[in-house]
Prior knowledge:
The chain is an all-beta fold.
Amino acid sequence: xxxxxxxxxxxxxxxxxxxxxxxxxxxxxxxxxxxxxxxxxxxxxxxxxxxxxxxxxxxxxxxxxxxxxxxxxxxxxxxxxxxxxxxxxxxxxxxxxxxxxxxxxxxxxxxxxxxxxxxxxxxxxxxxxxxxxxxxxxxxxxxxxxxxxxxxxxxxxxxxxxxxxxxxxxxxxxxxxxxxxxxxxxxxxxxxxxxxxxxxxxxxxxxxxxxxxxxxxxxxxxxxxxxxxxxxxxxxxxxxxxxxxxxxxxxxxxxxxxxxxxxxxxxxxxxxxxxxxxxxxxxxxxxxxxxxxxxxxxxxxxxxxxxxxxxx
Length: 312
């Protein structure tokens, strides 16, 4: 037989709150079973003081009740009731469905996830927080050149990353027909290596008209990125030089530190479109801590240089 009578959402639900011990103050904490309790409103509360029932002559803010006047410590709280609405029941196991939960109602505090939640971590399927990464390159820092500098240096290659990449775009060399080059700094060193036989390198590419541009050196004081030189703004109006340079396993100590480069640039000899790819390495197995980009002579006028790192 169907239920007949008042709707279940209209049935009063009375909760007995902890009696207050007065101490001469005007405001007191509201608790139930010694745990902070937040009423629906002041109108939902009924309290008896020294046998006199109090209603609506006080205010409630979160789990604090304020009577507006000091209540003497000699006064007694006879009872403290809270009137809610609806039926209070404990749902059976597995009976609460997704549809019963309000959107955004489950906070991270309710999850049993392990690890540290932060702007740089994510929650994995096994309910643990983990660092983002795992193969993707992350932007570490950017240097924008707007006035002449001799070089762009990245002095810190964090051990948080295994491999690194530099992307340099719209680079303008101050002096016409100069070579883009890089050097590295080893762990424990204060300067970039520039010994006469510190590096080996090779490059291969083309410029328009199908001219091959290639070069190499088996005993050098730097790694060259192109097989021919780059044009400057003064030599070729609108000249632009762009590079992508990869550095592998820089913190390892059992391998030569290989570098790979891709270049799209304005050829300095003819002012033509050119591209090149190349590789080289620091002829040493020590870990690296820094990278330096520069031209064979003259300053860098302009350019955007970004350093990226890849975690494993």
